[in-house]
Amino acid sequence: MADYPPKKNATFVFYVSLISQANTKIAQANPTLAAGDVKVATDDAAPSNLATLPVVDADFTKRVKVSMSAAEMNGDNVTIIFNDAAGAEWCDLTVNIQTVARQILDLAFPNVSARGIDVDASGGVEVGSFQAGAITAAAFGAGAIDNAAFNVTETLTANPAAGGIVAASFGAGAIDAAAIATDAIGAVELAAGAANKIADHVLRRTYANARASADGDAVNFRSLLGAIGKLVNKWAISGATLTVYQEDDTTSTAPGGTQTITATPGADPITTLDTT
Predict the structure, then answer these.
(1) Which candidate, 78, 76, 122, places its Cα nearest to that of 96?
(2) Which residues of the chain have pLDDT under 70?
(3) Of 24, 67, 160, 252, which is least surrounded by CB within 10 A?
(4) Closest to 18 in 3D by CA, of 77, 81, 69, 68
(5) Containing H/E element for 224?
(6) Residue ranges per structural domain of the chain
């Protein structure tokens, strides 16, 4: 739709009525406009013929439609001069147009009538002025927000297009327990492949690596690691004591350990273990 005031370096259409020379009290009906009758001057430049000759309105013959090109409107002050070269039909007329850089449509205004916009002391629109969901990803053009759009001295990576977000993009301790909401990572978020990888690492981890690790509780014979040691490491019986060793088959301290053996004379011996 049309807007106001007239915009600099943008097409503009307006209408005028030309007063009859024969009767200066009335507008001339069907005025004759010929080449050279209408000129335009931009700021202090000399007048030149209007590119498009004005035409009489077919529905209202006392109204003349004037169409200005963007080039003819490229000035702070634009003057249109009507001069009847024949000098016998209509009176001279001068119209001056003062242009602006921004029109009313360029200004911020509420979508709903009677609503206002909150503006802070520096002239910015406050966050509370936007409706929920008013700003979404689709509201921004591709590449509209990048490093150059912010007053920052560091980027996520030296080459975001090639590296994206990598470990070096985060400061020490940037992602910790406090940064992750409770139950943020649940069964749905953990893919089967990830769960399998964790399981495989647990099953293939050597007894020596687990024993030497600083993670978890202190090493203890009464633990899953101690039980695994009894299954895979050397153990020996001396009298009533069964000793389980570490992976070197020599050290018996935790997670190695000892168990007391109680024998029952006359009991049935165990000769086979078979999983059913």
Answers:
(1) 78
(2) 1, 108-119, 123-130, 147-164
(3) 24
(4) 81
(5) helix 224-232
(6) 12-98, 207-260
